Amino acid sequence: MLWRIIFSLVVIIVSGLFLMQSPPTPAVSQFAHADKVVHFGLFFVLAATMHLAFRPRLLIAVPILFIYAVSIEAIQHFVPGRGADVWDVVADMAGVLGFYVCRALYKVRAKQARTKKARTK
After folding, report:
1. What are 22-63's pLDDT values in tens digits?
2. Is the dihedral of CA 20, 10, 75, 29 positive or negative?
3. What are the residues whose beta carbons fall under 8 Å from the beta carbon of 104, sequence distance 6 or more?
4. pTM above 0.90, yes or no
5. Cβ atoms within 10 Å of 59's Cβ, excluding its own
């Protein structure tokens, strides 16, 4: 239940950030493609919280988050001061896939550790 609340809050915050008329521009984001790094990070967190809240299969989670990413970009096209960018969707999906790659690596390592521990007994 707690993870579903956290996921809901993350969706609200991410939606608000992406739909603001003027995106925040802190001095830190003065390097090339900083916005793509932000997209990657936010969608990594979205995928993580979605997984913890609902445990969807990969073939369910990825399309849902893809539709969300495309929807955000489509809406941004109509928000003054914002624009739609296909590369933002690419960065979003890289964040989603980044989470699932990290999760898969974690599962492999955990299985290896259990196997090693079982052998030493």
Report:
1. 765 655 557 888 889 999 999 999 999 999 999 999 999 999
2. positive
3. none
4. no
5. 7
Rounded to whole angstroms, how far apart are CA atoms 88 and 36?
A: 6
Structure tokens belonging to residue 71? 């929807």
The one-letter code for the residue type at 95 is G
Mean pLDDT of the region 91-104: 98
Q: Which DSSP string corresponds to the chain?
A: -HHHHHHHHHHHHHHHHHH-SS----GGG-STTHHHHHHHHHHHHHHHHHHHHH---HHHHHHHHHHHHHHHHHHHTTSTT----HHHHHHHHHHHHHHHHHHHHHHHHHHHHHHHHHHH-
Question: Residue ranges of the domains in the chain?
Answer: 2-17+33-120
- Closest alpha carbon to 44 in 3, 1, 119, 103: 103
Report whether 15 contacts 43 (CB < 8 A): no
- CB environment 95-105: b (16+ within 10 A), e (fewer): bbbbbbeeeee
